[in-house]
Amino acid sequence: TRSLTVIVTARADGPWHARGDVIDxxxxxxxxxxxxxxxxxxxxMMSIDLDFDPGTLVLSNVGVEQPFVAIxxxxxxxxxxxxxxxxxxxxxxxxxxxxxFPKTLGARFGGALGCSHLLTLFQLMASTVPHAxxxxxxxxxxxxxxxxxxxxxxxxxxxxxxxxxxRDQTEVAIQLADTHTRPxxxxxxxxxxxxxxxxxxxxxAIDRKRFLIDRLDVRERRRTAETVGSTxxxxxxxxxxxxxxVRLIPGLAARLFSLLGDxxxxxxxxxxxxxxxxxFIQIIxxxxxxxxxxxxxxxxxxxxxxxxxxxxxxxxxxxxxxRRDGAVQRxxxxxxxxxxxx
Length: 342
Prior knowledge:
The longest helix has 28 residues, at about 115-145. This protein has about 350 residues and is an alpha+beta fold. It has a 9-stranded antiparallel β-sheet. It has a two-stranded antiparallel ribbon with strand order 3-4. It has helices at about 85-90, 100-110, 115-145, 235-240, 250-260, 265-275, 275-285, 290-295, 325-340, and strands at about 1-10, 15-25, 30-35, 35-40, 40-50, 60-70, 150-165, 170-180, 195-205, 215-225, 235.
């Protein structure tokens, strides 16, 4: 299970605040990595704190915490670890969460420059915070009541889960839930605090060896306090039909932006689907038992079409720790050169 949350809080004076968290919880198996065994449990736990101006969306402070990381400093890593790139993110204070920010973030923290998990979280926050601020500003103008200082008014939760119904398929569920709340008025029931509940649910089946999308069921609904018990789901099957039969990795993000464009009303749908590929990479590691079984019997677990990401470990330059000239990659290359020689 991958869990991502973004919570936005207003303040009476000074900058508003947003906190984002990502947690990767592996519930099955173990993975050999960096001369050690990575067991089941919490693999990643990281957070980003942002202070920003609600009018301009300019960041005044960026804070990063990483209690759980995949690679801690060791002799093998020559003292390097997943926390090393964090100061790059902290240096983004002064930037605005505008349309150009994702490119700025990618250029300064993408690939071998940073951490893919923090990058995924910050990308989600960069989309979520402007959306939340826009919703709250519209509600304040419509209802005439400002947000409660110091109390969160918006939470986005995203959950990515993997399931293995057979050796040939991996099923993935992605659930996004936005909850926007208003201040309670005297005499209100607690449910009247709900300004908007916006949900997007994705259910997919992926061909294990070729990473093709075999089935895709995506539905969406928006509810308010007045319609919480009477709103039906809207099916996006027709809109997303072009994704059936295409490869999940690589290139899904580009296909999604091409398909959904810049439509503001489809942004939560896009944010849900953008978690597909990075979440699926985490799911792959939980299917290591099949790799061991196939290796023991001498059968080939894949074909020539198998993407490189299916290999144990990270792809070269996928993050700072797996950069081409890094200690981990050099140790990996050396180990497998010895195996090939044997």
